[in-house]
């Protein structure tokens, strides 16, 4: 499972970086670009690249990581739906 999470994190990070210039030039692509960024951060909190106790310690150490994961996933899904709705 960790291998799949790592692969998804790397692919989404590459997509986020590759679409940066497009998001700067084309305002309509910014929502999907932000969604890939929020998704990358959400996958980063799973503990594949940086262990979860370390990340949890950075944000307070009282299990705030689960809240951050849920908020980032919700934001990413919301941004994807907004990007899909805004396309003509």
How would you sum up this structure in a few lines?
The chain is mostly helical and 88 residues long.
What structural keywords apply?
88 residues, mainly alpha, 0% strand
Strand fraction = under 5%
Rounded to the nearest angstrom, the radius of gyration is 14 Å
Mean pLDDT: 88
Shape: globular
Helicity, as a percent range: over 70%
Low-pLDDT residue spans: none
Count of separate DSSP helical elements = 5
Number of strands: 0
Termini Cα gap: 37 Å
Q: Outline the biggest β-sheet.
A: none
H-E string: HHHHH
Structural class: mainly alpha
Plain-language structure description:
- The chain is mainly alpha-helical and 88 residues long.
- Helix content is 76%, strand content 0%.
- The protein contains 5 helices and no strands.
- Helix 1 packs antiparallel against helix 3 and helix 3 packs antiparallel against helix 5.
- The longest helix is centred in the last third of the chain and has 22 residues.
- The chain starts with a helix and ends with a helix.
- The model has no long low-confidence stretch (mean pLDDT 88).
What's the topology here?
Layout (H helix, E strand, L loop, with lengths): L1 H17 L1 H6 L4 H15 L7 H7 L6 H22 L2
Helix pairs in contact: 1-3, 3-5
